[in-house]
Amino acid sequence: MRSKLPKHIGFIPDGNRRWARARGLPKEAGYAFGIEPGLELFELCRARAIEEVSVYGFTQDNTRRPSAQTEQFQAACVQFANTIFTRGAALLVLGDERSPLFPAELKPFRQRKGEGIKVNFLVNYGWEWDLNGLKNGGLRSSDVSRLDLIVRWGGGRRLSGFLPVQSVYADIFVLDEYWPDFDVSHLGRALEWFAVQDRTLGG
Amino acid sequence: MRSKLPKHIGFIPDGNRRWARARGLPKEAGYAFGIEPGLELFELCRARAIEEVSVYGFTQDNTRRPSAQTEQFQAACVQFANTIFTRGAALLVLGDERSPLFPAELKPFRQRKGEGIKVNFLVNYGWEWDLNGLKNGGLRSSDVSRLDLIVRWGGGRRLSGFLPVQSVYADIFVLDEYWPDFDVSHLGRALEWFAVQDRTLGG
C-alpha cells in the first residue's frame, strides 16, 4: 500500500479553448488565462509538500493546430516555465527540442535546472518520441518517476499520450471544469479522493 | 472525428476477489464466476459488429499473489480462451510464454489463430515485457491496434498497465460494479457514453 499522499502528481490542464469559446473569445485566447491558475497550483503543491509534479504543456500532436493557437500556447508555456523557475523549482522541460516548434527560450531546461519542488513540464512532448528512446538505451523521460495520481480538467476521461510509462498505475481524477476555471478546492478534492483509493499495484 | 462506434474496445474485468469476499467466499473463488460474463460480453460485441476486443486476463504483477489465486485465474483464462476459440474468434493470446506462469494450453495462440472477431487476450502480460520489445525491433503487442474505448469494472480509475501504447488516446469508462456482476446493460452504457465524447486525438 502506498502513502495516502501522492509523491508525484500529473496535471492535464485541458479545456482552454472551450473556455474561451464559451466566453465568445477566439479559441486561442484561452491559453493566456491558463498561466495564473498554473502558478496557483504550483504554490499549492509546494505548500502540500508534493515532491514532484508533471504538467502537460503541449504535444507534438497539438502543433498540428492553426498557428494562431500554437503561438499562444508556446508563449504561455515559456512564461509559465520562466516564472516557476524564478520562484524556485527543479525544472525539467521534456520534449523534442530539435523541432522549430520547441521554444528556443526553454532549451536550457532540457537538463533539469534549479532547486526546489521537481517539476517536469511537457513541451512539444510526444509519447512516441518518448518511447522511441528505448530503441537507443532508455526512455527520453527516464528522469521522470512513476506517477501516483493524474488530475485532468475539462472532462476528458483519457490520457492523451501523457507519459504512458509513468502512468501505468496512476489513479486518474477528472474534473469537468475547464482549466482556466481552476479553483484551489480542485487539488483538495483530488487528494481526498486519492487517499481512499485502494492501491495494490497488481499484487 | 472518429466513428461513434468504437472499432476496438479494451476490457478490464476487475473486482472478482472483492465480489467473492462480499459473498463470504474465499477470494480465489471469484475468478470462476468471471467466465460466463466474459462469454456473454464476447457474444454482445460480436452482435454489435465490434471489430476487435482486448481483454485483461492476468498480468505478471498479478502472479505475485498466493498460488490459490494464481491457479484459479490461470484455469479461468484457459477455459475462456478455449471456449471463444471454439465459438469463432481470431484469437491472439498476448503474454510472456517463456514463463511457467503462462498456461501451456494457450501456447498455440501466441500466434493469432481462427476466424471471426479479433480477440487479444492478455495472459501473463506485462507492460514492461511489451515495451521491452522496442529494444529489439518492435512492441510485443505490435499485432494489437489502437484502442478507442476501454471499459473497466470494479471502480478503479486507472489502467493498471493495460496496453500502454494502444491506450494513449482511448476513452476510459469505469463501472463501479464488480466484474462477476456484469450485466448486458453495461456495454450499452459504455457505447452510449463513447458516442458523445469529443475526440480530437490532440489535433
Your description of this structure?
The structure is a homodimer of 203-residue chains. The first copy, chain A, is built from 5 helices and 6 strands. With 203 residues, chain A is an alpha/beta fold. Chain A has a 6-stranded parallel beta sheet with strand order 3-4-2-1-5-6. In chain A, helix 2 packs parallel to helix 3. Chain A is globular and about 45 Å long. In chain A, 48% of the residues are buried. Chains A and B meet through helix 4 and strand 6 of A and helix 4 and strand 6 of B.
Main attributes of the structure:
globular, 5 helices, 203 residues, alpha/beta, 30% helix
Topology record:
2 copies of one chain form a homodimer.
Chain A: E1 8-12, H1 16-22, H2 35-47, E2 52-59, H3 67-88, E3 89-94, E4 117-125, H4 127-132, E5 149-152, E6 171-174, H5 184-195
Parallel strand pairs in A: 1-2, 1-5, 2-4, 3-4, 5-6
Helix pairs in contact in A: 2-3
Mean of pLDDT of chain A? 94
The helicity of chain A comes to 25-40%
* Count of runs of 4 or more consecutive helical residues of chain A: 5
The N- to C-terminal Cα distance of chain A equals 10 Å
